[in-house]
């Protein structure tokens, strides 16, 4: 079952990671996760804990707030 908020969080992580030119493998190493776990998180197929999100945020030099930020796409286009 796909949960939209998990998908959006995963998309945010992937976007930030790519902006910083970091591979999934490198991010996984920085967080002490396997690449397969990073792939599941970015795909929204797993529900990461708050501690996991904090590790990811630290590894990406960002905040948990930035990772979980959900923007209304309709408002963006106005």
Task: Give structural notes.
- The protein is mainly alpha-helical and 78 residues long.
- The protein contains six helices and no strands.
- α1 (4-19) crosses α3 (35-43).
- The longest helix is centred in the first third of the chain and has 16 residues, at 4-19.
Largest sheet: none
Radius of gyration: 12 Å
Count every helix, treating DSSP H or I runs of 4 or more residues as helices: 6
* N- to C-terminal distance: 31 Å
Give average pLDDT, whole number: 90
Helix- and strand-based class?
mainly alpha
Question: How would you describe the oligomerization state of the chains in this entry?
Answer: single chain
**Percent helix:** 55-70%
Q: What is the overall shape?
A: globular
Strand content: under 5%
Which stretches are low in confidence, meaning pLDDT under 50 for 5 or more residues running? none
How many extended strands?
A: 0
Search tags:
78 residues; mainly alpha
Lay out the secondary structure.
Blueprint: H1 4-19, H2 24-31, H3 35-43, H4 50-59, H5 64-68, H6 73-76
Helix pairs in contact: 1-3, 2-3
Short account of what is shown:
With 78 residues, the protein is mostly helical.
């Amino acid at each position: 079952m796909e949960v939209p908020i998990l998908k959006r969080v995963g998309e945010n992580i992937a976007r930030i990671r790519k902006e910083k030119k970091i591979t999934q493998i490198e991010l996984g190493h920085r967080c002490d996760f396997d690449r397969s776990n990073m792939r599941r998180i970015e795909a929204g197929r797993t529900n990461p804990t708050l501690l996991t999100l904090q590790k990811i945020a630290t590894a990406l030099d960002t905040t948990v707030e930035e990772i979980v930020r959900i923007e209304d796409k309709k408002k963006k286009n106005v």
